[in-house]
Amino acid sequence: MTVISVHAPSHREALWELESAFERGDLITVFGRCTVSYAGRAASELGVGDRLLILKPDGAALVHTDEGRTPVNWQPPGSTHHAAVREGRLRVRSKRTNPAETLLVRFERVHQLSAMSVTGGRDLELHGSEEDLRTRVLERPELIAPGFEPVSTERETAAGPVDVFGVDDAGDPVVVELKRRRVGPDAVGQLARYVAAVRDELTGDGEFLADHEAATADDSVRGVLVAPSLTDRAADLLADRGFDHVALGPPADAGESVDALADDSDDSDDLDDSNTTAGSGSRPDESA
Amino acid sequence: MTVISVHAPSHREALWELESAFERGDLITVFGRCTVSYAGRAASELGVGDRLLILKPDGAALVHTDEGRTPVNWQPPGSTHHAAVREGRLRVRSKRTNPAETLLVRFERVHQLSAMSVTGGRDLELHGSEEDLRTRVLERPELIAPGFEPVSTERETAAGPVDVFGVDDAGDPVVVELKRRRVGPDAVGQLARYVAAVRDELTGDGEFLADHEAATADDSVRGVLVAPSLTDRAADLLADRGFDHVALGPPADAGESVDALADDSDDSDDLDDSNTTAGSGSRPDESA
DNA sequence: CGTGCCAGGTGCCTT
DNA sequence: AAGGCACTTGGCACG
User: Fold this and answer.
1) Contact B50/A81, CB-based, under 8 Å?
2) What are phi and psi of B262, to 5 degrees?
3) Which of A23, A74, A112, B288 has the fewest CB within 10 Å, making it most exposed?
4) Are residues A53 and A159 in the same domain?
């Protein structure tokens, strides 16, 4: 692990450090006064201001202001960074193809440049995703319906993969769509497409079927939307389609474990300080 | 504009600088070896490694590795940052409510800490959005259909706002849904919901209508999906519903202006260097 | 504040 | 490479 940091470098110096950092495959941050231009899927211009530019060895580029989680401009991984001094000013350009996109950062002044060699794990262990919800449903199928038996997951249909496919106690096919959070009308539409696809498939989709067979199949494919909750419109749509809602979310409510982290509270000797942003400005403290 | 930067500070020093930076409302970067825990809408654990932590005065917190455009962990704006030294180690916690979420970064070592006061424009001028596409449609309504006349934009319906609503040369209502890029089946579903809502509205939705009136209204509400292109499934669905597709994207193909940025090529005297990431590793250069 | 919807969405996986 | 979809999606505008 190494960190190189230069304070208020000349543009030439900055270029030199950038070159070296590129070669080393470092993670780079450049803080300075700059303008940003982007052209590709869309196009944008950003006037002069202080920004933090992050250049990653995988080709990602991020331009951050002092606000927001989302970078004001960026380039995805796989792009190619290129630095140059032009008219005495540092310029960083990041390009990619497919789609063709270019990000250009023109520095008026470089306040600081750092380059860091990064090591260590990148793999995040995440809980509470839709996959966890699926596991929960498969472990306790009765949550879907009294006699529900899962047959397959990610079952392919003409409309796309069905999250969980199975049969109910009457032997009728059941299409289950899982959502880890409260859903809107779009999720009902998604479920409807799957149900229609399975129905068409089971009725032979164009092949000849006796009327009563088709009618039976038509009604017999059930649709179940599993989600913690629904918006009103979604509920209406769901009712219109004759589908069911099962109120269920990812297991082991993450909300509880929040406390474990939040209750990092005081049983200790050391220093601390807080910065309250959301509330009353940046007045410090509120905690012990 | 000021930059404060400390190299390999002690945990106490780091805390001190963090406190000061919080008070000043600075943009902060902390590079160090750490583990990260998150609990809230989901929950996650990230093992030890070198990461770049960014703390913004608006409450946003980002944890970046050397890969990816998306932070490996984060907290949205509006959160409250809190720093402390615990068991001799720097800890940064970022909390928010609604939903309750906590991000905890435990530093094993702090390689570098910087605090920067940020000034300057944050407003991005973006071209090529859906709004630009709408403008284009309103300026040249004939692109939708020979005699199309727009009546309103963002017209409210029971299913949500219709992008552009108007009448065709036969006086029949037309529902237009705009998409700035190639679309899938979901967009067709969206259009279908709007068309159904308008149809219900015009047929009186439950009120009595003579059969022929209802039938007329039924067929007469047209649906038009405006997008550069469709996937096959979307096209099929669109045909099933009897809707139309108009192949149109945001104006002034951004693709061309890419060249303006890309053709930053050489008519100059100065230094430059490039870092090819996507291709052949990090061998430098390829340009003049 | 919730609902709905766009986004230069990004990222992941399958065909 | 394109399609389909989840995401701690984020962000905005509106009721």
Assistant:
1) no
2) -65, -40
3) B288
4) no
Looking at this protein, which amino acid is placed at residue A264? D
Q: Do residue A173 and residue A239 come from a single domain? A: yes
Q: What CATH number does residue B209 fall under?
A: 3.40.1350.10
B171-225 pLDDT, tens per residue? 999 999 999 999 999 999 999 999 999 999 888 655 544 444 444 445 789 999 9
- Band (B122; pLDDT cuts 50, 70, 90): confident
B10 CA – D12 C1', rounded, Å: 42
Residue B255 resides in a domain = no
Full-model pTM:
0.90
DSSP readout, A182-207? Answer: -B-HHHHHHHHHHHHHHHHHHTTTTS
Residue of chain B minimizing CA distance to A132: B42
- Model confidence over B22-58: pLDDT tens digits? 999 999 999 999 999 999 999 999 999 999 999 999 9
Report the residue from A121, A233, A275 with minimal CB separation from B80. A275
Same domain? A168 vs A94: no
- CA A186, distance to chain mean position in Å, is 18
The answer to whether residue B39 is domain-embedded is yes
Cβ–Cβ under 8 Å, residues B168 and B198: no
Residues in chain A closer than 8 A to B42 (CB atoms): 126-129, 180, 250, 254
Q: Are A135 and A241 members of one domain?
A: yes
Q: Is A37 within 8 Å of B261 when comparing Cβ atoms?
A: yes
In sequence order, what are the beta bridge partners of B173?
B167
Total domain count for chain B? 2
- Chain A nearest C-alpha distance from B170 (Å): 31
Domain boundary pick from B81, B116, B151: B116
Strands A222-227 and A173-178: parallel
> What confidence tens digit (pLDDT) does each residue in A34-88 have?
999 999 999 999 999 999 999 999 999 999 999 999 999 999 999 999 999 999 9
Structural domain span for residue A187: 130-247
Task: Tell me the range of A211-225, B5-19, B245-259, B268-282 where mean pLDDT is highest.
Answer: B5-19
Task: Name chain A contacts of B67, Cβ cutoff 8 Å.
Answer: 56-58, 60, 77, 122
The answer to whether residues B141 and B215 belong to one domain is: yes
Q: What is the pLDDT of residues A203-242, one digit of tens each?
A: 865 554 444 444 444 578 999 999 999 999 999 999 999 9
In-domain check, residue B279: no
- Which residues in chain A touch residue B18, judged by CB atoms under 8 angstroms apart? 273
CA distance B148 to chain A (A): 28
Start-to-end C-alpha separation, chain B: 35
Exposed/middle/buried for A10, CB within 10 Å: 0-12, 13-18, 19+? Answer: middle
Decide: residue B45, CB within 10 A, 0-12 exposed, 13-18 middle, 19+ buried: middle
